[in-house]
């Protein structure tokens, strides 16, 4: 049985914090390959010194604090991020509330009060471009310079490149917005996924022979509207399917909705939370002149989805358990 993943928050008593831990520090939106290099460095440092390795991250995302009226397409909400961090093998995560007080904390105060006094860290791993503290004055070089005096170890990871392009959360958002699911998967190291509760829809799919499990995604989700091959997780169970994300132009042009048709499945999923991983992009959303044309296209979409899923039989993010 895997050890329990511990989440430490601002309200956690200091006596409950494992002093001497190594922390991988970052925002970790998506937990992509660049983030995983930082996590791997922290875990290696922890193993070398017999210390637990934790992620240190911030919620809400600092962009939400500084630009509250600007739509923010997050790759992972807080829970999804924690589940990915747990799946990466970390012992836990420190989730710091990013508010006015945190934004106004100087880099030096953050290092001495938050990292040294409260958490008692023995080592820190960060990415080359991570900044912290008021005015983003805190930098990897500041941590490196302070390390000898503080008696801690600091590891700064360079950027991770794929085909000479740096991996970043922004690049993954752009890929998803363009329907480039394969490119996003490569940068993430696993398929991008969402989690949502199955809600009641218009029941049109049932009449068409394609009953769907419907999930409302975050209003700021920037995923390209279209048809996707998907793999769904229901607890430990994995189910293959084809999904439409969009406004249903043939019918109502309504609010964006994710509609998932699960192959070879019968059952009631209403009210259940599903993880939906996007394995491949099939086509853009289209408006059809008639129901027969739509059904023929859905048959073709399903066949293409089955082929994409058969070519990636194990594709699914590694998710840990978070209480």
Q: Would you kindly provide a written description of the structure presented here, covering whatever features stand out?
A:
This protein is an alpha/beta fold and 323 residues long. It has ten helices and 14 strands. The chain has a six-stranded parallel sheet, sandwiched between helices. It is elongated and about 75 Å long. The two termini are 15 Å apart. The mean pLDDT is 94.
Give the oligomeric state of the chains in this entry, treating copies of one chain as homo and distinct chains as hetero.
single chain
- Total helix count? 10
**Helix content percent band:** 25-40%
Poorly predicted ranges (pLDDT <50, ≥5 residues)? Answer: none
Largest sheet report: 6 strands, parallel
**What is the global morphology?**
elongated
Instruction: Provide the structure class.
Output: alpha/beta
Rg: 22 Å
The succession of helices and strands, N to C, reads EEHEHHEHHEHEEEHHEHEEEEEH
Mean pLDDT: 94
> Tally of extended strands?
14
Which structural traits does this protein have?
single chain; 323 residues; alpha/beta; 6-stranded parallel sheet; 31% helix
